[in-house]
Each structure stands twice: as structure tokens, then as C-alpha cells.
């Protein structure tokens, strides 16, 4: 029974993560398809650039909640730390490879932040603060996201978080950095977009 519950939670987490908030809110409120503007990404950064600050904030919050809710659901119905870790990962994967958009989606930053906020709140506060400082100083959201993602497993280890959470930090960091590979190239070339 617990295996079936765990499987159901993972499917739910993936489908929840797959909900394309950027596309939905962009069309409903701003009457624009985010895929046709800016980078073509449906995440908060492109929404901020293409639709304005309110859109960026709303979509960031909605994507954050996908990760947070997935972890909370796993904690409630299964209860083990590893179930919450995998539910969080499935939400991030769903956001990045959404079944509703032919497996194309965002880069997982906001959803990933929602996941770690539920599991490691102290780490979340620190890496978010670092992200914000980098973005304010450089105006590069991608740089802040890459550095902050890389720091998650380090701070998780320093704060003596459970091994499962450190594992999540490592996998999520590698995944998010990989998704930013084109941004890394543009940062090196000096052609990355600023906010």
C-alpha cells in the first residue's frame, strides 16, 4: 500500500510541476504567449522581462508553490524524508519537462526554491539572499541562479541537514546548472541579457 501511495505522490508531483503557470497567466491576464517573447521561456525571469514586474513576481510565486506543495503532499501521505525529496525532484522535472508543452518548460529555479524552502528553510534564506545580492549587483538573474544552486548542497552539509536533503541539493544543483548551459555560454561571451 505504501508503495502505491508513494507512486501516486510522485505522479501528482510531476503533474503539479508540469502546470505551465507562465503560459497560463501570460495568456489569461496579459493576453500574451510567453513562448513568443524574449527567451521564449515560460519561467519568471522571461515573464519579468517580457510582461513586467507583476507578471514576474506572480509566476515566480506560482512556480515556487508547485515545489512546496509537492513536498508537503509527500510529507502528509508518505511521511519519510526520502519521499519528500523525490516528490520535490519530480516537481522540478515536471516544471522543466512539462507534459503539457511537449516536455519543454522552465529551468526549475523557482520550483526548486519551493522544494528546499520546505526541507531546509535556513539554507533557503541564505541562498535566496545570495541570489538577490548577485542579481542586484550584476543584473544577471542566471548568474544568481547558478551560484545559488551550487551553494545549496554546501550549506546543507554545513547545517548538518539529513543525507537525503544533501543528496537533493546535489542533484537539483546539477540539474539547474545544466539547464543554464546556454546562459553560461552567454555569460562567458558577455552577451547574456540583464533585467
Described by its quaternary structure, the protein is: single chain
**Broad shape:** globular
Order of helices and strands: HHHHHHHHHH
The value of Rg in angstroms is: 16 Å
Kindly state the number of beta strands.
0
- Round the mean pLDDT to the nearest integer and report it: 95
Helix content: over 70%
Largest β sheet strand count, sense and barrel closure: none
| Coarse structural class | mainly alpha
Poorly predicted regions are none
Distance separating the two termini: 49 Å
Beta-sheet strand percentage? under 5%
Q: How large is the count of helical segments?
A: 10
Strand and helix map with partners:
Blueprint lengths: L1 H17 L2 H9 L14 H8 L1 H25 L3 H16 L12 H11 L1 H18 L2 H18 L4 H17 L1 H9 L6
Helix pairs in contact: 1-4, 1-5, 2-4, 3-4, 4-5, 4-6, 5-6, 5-9, 6-7, 6-9, 7-8, 8-9
Polypeptide structure, described:
With 195 residues, this protein is an all-alpha fold. The chain is built from ten helices and no strands. It has helices at 2-18, 21-29, 44-51, 53-77, 81-96, 109-119, 121-138, 141-158, 163-179, 181-189. The protein is globular.
Quick rundown:
The chain is 76% helix and 0% strand.
List keywords for this structure.
76% helix; 10 helices; mainly alpha; 195 residues
